[in-house]
Amino acid sequence: MAFDVVSLGELLIDFTPVGVSENGNPVFERNPGGGPANFACAVAKLGGKAAFIGKVGNDNFGRALREFIGQCGVDTSGLLLSDEFKTTLAFVHLDASGDRSFSFYRKNGADTMLRTEEVDLSLLDGCPYFFCSSVMMAEGESRRTSFDLMRAARDRGCTVYFDPNLRMNLWESPDEVKRVNLEAIPLADIVKISEEEIEFLTGDPDYKRAARAMKEKYGLSAILVTLGAKGCFALINGEELELDACPVKAVDTTAAGDSFNGGFLYALCRTGKGLADCSAGELRSILKFANTVGGLTTTKKGAICALPSLEEVEQMLEQG
Ligand code: ADP
């Protein structure tokens, strides 16, 4: 079966704080996490065909993760269960003002140990879009695997969609983050980046100027800059498009970028056309759809649990 999208990346447990126990100790909830997994679930929840490539431990956490994304409709035949390495864990901490920080337990984490030789590349056959992010490039075997799969996807004619999704504390140094991301971007066709990320990678605080320069320098077909509550800015084909965010009351922005990615590729697949054949009007509708998927995800707490269905997105779009 050919998939609409194949996503490579980390799938891990996010332990999020949910209060205090009777003994006065913090209590954490076991949530599925990982941007590329959120992305695949977003596509599947909208009704698209999504497959996930990655590795988790053959432990309780890993098996629960596989079951969870499978129940979301994602094909998990490319998700390996390792007897050697454990599922990666992340703990979310909230400070007094509600700001989040992460502690990662990822040294030799199963996701980072995925090797190219273990991947069933036939999943890419006939698939129009391959998705990956730089979190898999931060450490371990999975850096080489990510680059290998970007090349393998290109060789098979897939359009490569790359999300730098910078998580600075997973890397050895800021210089390394920059170097590796700038090596990956030329292997992509479409790059989705946030305002802060493009400033970090280019040194230019003007995201429009930075996006124009990046598209030109790396020969990209499209660059999508997401701007949180301000919406998005995109350079696609010869068009410059700017769209306001969906008017929602945001309660938790976790996975907004991942679901924007899912919404974008789902809507693009639905046109039955490649990006280069879409009119300016069609591109605007695709971006509006992506903004709506991203916006609706912020109205509920959590990541995968907060992803909207197609009906919810269409209802929101009808309301204008
Ligand atoms: P990332 O999670 O990658 O940093 P953003 O925070 O820019 O990405 O969010 C991605 C998209 O989700 C935005 O372009 C926008 O469409 C939507 N979004 C994010 N935050 C909000 C918000 N507060 N209100 C409405 N839409 C939002």
From TrEMBL:
All copies of domain Carbohydrate kinase PfkB, residue ranges: 4-308
Keywords: ATP-binding, Kinase, Nucleotide-binding, Transferase
Keyword field contains Disulfide bond: no
Annotated Pfam families: PfkB
Record family assignment: Belongs to the carbohydrate kinase PfkB family.
Entry superkingdom: Bacteria
GO biological process, one term: fructose metabolic process
PANTHER family: HEXOKINASE FAMILY MEMBER (PTHR43085), PSEUDOURIDINE KINASE-RELATED (PTHR43085:SF1)
Cited Gene3D superfamilies: 3.40.1190.20
GO molecular function terms attached to this record: ATP binding; fructokinase activity
InterPro entries, alphabetized: Carboh/pur_kinase_PfkB_CS (IPR002173), PfkB_Carbo_kinase (IPR050306), PfkB_dom (IPR011611), Ribo/fructo_kinase (IPR002139), Ribokinase-like (IPR029056)
UniProt protein name: Carbohydrate kinase
